[in-house]
């Protein structure tokens, strides 16, 4: 058996752990205030992050001083928020503790890992041969699909639902985190 899938799992776990640490710190600062986000607002937040990555990839310059890596990490965290919101719905007042939010984060993070491992097996590490800019384009495509599904009140005829698209966004963003981290370590 090749060692690449084991390396991928380790790197994926490390990327998700780094995102989890940021998520936990933001919970301390803001509590789960994102519970108030309606689905369309959350989709727009994902869109803003992905568009910024694409803009930075094309312009090769950031006037704000933040790079692409933090935006991929934000896509992971907002993607998990999206999965939580799909399950729980949005609210008008914060209705969960930080610990409850972290438990849901861990549950959905594990689901994304499991999905990545299955797809990575079937696609045979194809993501390693892709460009980071392709992850960005695929994420933007997934976001557009989510918008269309939202416009159809969550109904699809033959396509996967919003949750599957969020999980794909998270996994592509994790691949971006892994690749960019590898570049920094070279």
Fold and architecture overview:
Helices cover 75% and strands 0% of the residues. The protein contains six helices and no strands. The radius of gyration is 16 Å and the shape is globular. The model has no long low-confidence stretch (mean pLDDT 94).
How are the SSEs ordered, and which strands pair?
Blueprint (H helix, E strand, L loop, with lengths): L3 H27 L8 H21 L8 H21 L9 H26 L8 H20 L10 H24 L1
Helix pairs in contact: 1-3, 1-4, 1-6, 2-3, 2-5, 3-4, 3-6, 4-6, 5-6
How many β strands by DSSP?
A: 0
Q: Judging from the principal axes of the Cα atoms, what is the shape?
A: globular
Output the structural class: mainly alpha
Portion in helices? over 70%
SSE order in H/E notation? HHHHHH
The largest pleated sheet is described as:
none
Low-pLDDT windows of residues: none
What share of residues are in beta strands?
Answer: under 5%
Total of helices:
6
- For the record, give the distance between the C-alpha atoms at the N and C termini, rounded to a whole number: 26 Å
Over the alpha carbons, how many angstroms does the gyration radius reach?
16 Å
User: pLDDT average, as an integer?
Assistant: 94
Q: Which structural traits does this protein have?
A:
single chain; about 190 residues; mainly alpha; 6 helices
């Amino acid at each position: 058996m090749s060692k690449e899938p084991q390396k991928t799992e380790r790197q994926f776990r490390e990327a998700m752990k780094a995102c989890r640490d940021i998520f936990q710190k933001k919970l301390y600062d803001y509590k789960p205030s994102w519970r108030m986000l309606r689905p369309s607002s959350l989709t727009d937040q994902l869109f803003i992050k992905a568009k910024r990555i694409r803009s930075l990839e094309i312009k090769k310059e950031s006037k704000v001083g933040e790079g692409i890596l933090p935006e991929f990490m934000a896509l992971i965290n907002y993607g998990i928020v999206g999965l939580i919101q799909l399950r729980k719905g949005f609210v008008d007042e914060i209705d969960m503790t930080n610990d409850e939010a972290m438990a849901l984060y861990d549950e959905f993070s594990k689901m994304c890992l499991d999905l990545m491992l299955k797809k990575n097996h079937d696609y045979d590490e194809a993501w390693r041969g892709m460009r980071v800019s392709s992850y960005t384009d695929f994420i933007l495509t997934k976001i557009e699909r989510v918008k269309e599904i939202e416009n159809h009140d969550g109904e699809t005829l033959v396509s996967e639902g919003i949750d599957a698209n969020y999980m794909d966004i998270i996994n592509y963003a994790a691949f971006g985190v892994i690749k960019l981290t590898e570049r920094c370590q070279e």
